[in-house]
Design a protein that fits this description.
Helix content: 10-25%
Strand order of the largest sheet: 1-4-3-2-5-9
Number of helices: 8
Mean pLDDT: 92
Number of strands: 14
Order of helices and strands: EEEEHEEHEEHEHEEEHEHEHH
Distance between the termini: 35 Å
Largest sheet: 6 strands, mixed
Length: 272
Amino acid sequence: MNDTLYHYIDPGFSHTAVGNYTLLLLLGHASYNLAIMQGQQLMVWRKTAPLSELTQPGSEVQEVLDFNYHDVVTGISSPWFTLVPEELFDTVTATEAARYLDVSIADSVFAQPLDEYNQVIFKANEELSTAAARYDLQKVVFAASGWIQTIAANAPSEHQVFLQVFDDRFDLAYFRQEKLHLYNTFEYTHEDELAYYTVFACQQLKLDLSLITVVLSGAVETDDQRFSPLLNDMFKAIEITPLRVANIPQTLPAHQLLALTALPLCASLADA
């Protein structure tokens, strides 16, 4: 393993112990993130890399992907999805909803629980499908599900809006009575657009911005100066999420690992 490609490698990590480890992959439309866990303990965290690397013969990551892990969880962060309330969901509903995702012959379509109350139907385009197919496509999960479950389990307030930020898009979640009320994803190229779409979503929900705290996770620095100054002008407060679902060294930004390390929650719900 090339140490320069990794944020973190635990001193106790051993190639001979990989049978006790779980590989976590979070795939976006152009890049991916990777972590290796031993139970709840973070063992390896790899720097964000191009998605194409996963299917390139001879790339450094192939060695890591080829280990004989105890389990592999592949989460797809897909902008192509629709939600269906659990009580309305059946095979016919799923088939009808999938038609609105503009599915081509090379795409893959999945249907699984998003949380206790909703099913999510989503697609992976050809590039995502090819990358995910290295492992069992039947075990692919909707990546946002674990993040949403983690928030829901920690008493979210109606005065909080949660953002999971990626390099070129972000997920937004809002809860009422600790149940998911809104989930959506938005593309952005500049922090102004992230702020605009966040304000727009809040206005659609008829929220008083002066009462709302925006809680950030994902591709945000701990001392964030990219998004927070602009958002602070519009909302009551901006916070970096304190939530975590894994044992992560204090020297690492746990909020950047939240969605990745929450992927096993997606898998447990999908298998339920």
